[in-house]
Amino acid sequence: MTEDLGCMQTKTERNHDRGNAVIEVALLAPWIFFLFLGVIDVGFYYYAAINVENAARVAAMYTSSAYGALTDSTTACSLVLQEVKSMPFTGGAPTNCSGANLQVTLSAPQTTGLDGIAVPMTQVSVTAKTLPMFPIPGLTGQLTITRTVQMRLRDKS
After folding, report:
1. What is the number of structural domains in the chain?
2. Are strands 118-130 and 110-112 parallel, antiparallel or unpaired?
3. Which range marks the domain in which residue 98 is found?
4. Dist. CA 76–CA 103, nearest whole Å
5. Residue 128 domain-assigned?
6. ∠ at Cα 95 (133, 93), nearest 5°?
7. What pLDDT band is residue 5 in, cutting at 50, 70 and 90?
8. Is the residue at 4 inside a domain?
């Protein structure tokens, strides 16, 4: 009666395989951790870009509501500040729209429609410098996001 020992593993062979798995996990864990942090950081950058886009859109909607609002930079600035208040900035949240971390520019470009008639427009450009969620050595650490929104003036009075 001969036994086929090729299919059977002894107890020491199983323990040896267990040690290999621990070493593999120990070698891969830092890479998985950094990949996870990178995904979170990229998500944070997208969140900041969406905040800046929304701030520019809200200010453009206000300035396009009437000719009087076209040059009202004070109200447009306060609307932008309300939208970006959840973003982290160096030295705390900005209190004005012409600082180093946040800049808001209003303009009124004249464009021509398809029929050749001049169309009054409003344009709002918002630039924000935000901090990364996880500082990575060797990188600058600040992300500059600029979004420009252009809208047609709704009221001619």
Report:
1. 1
2. antiparallel
3. 11-152
4. 12
5. yes
6. 15
7. low
8. no
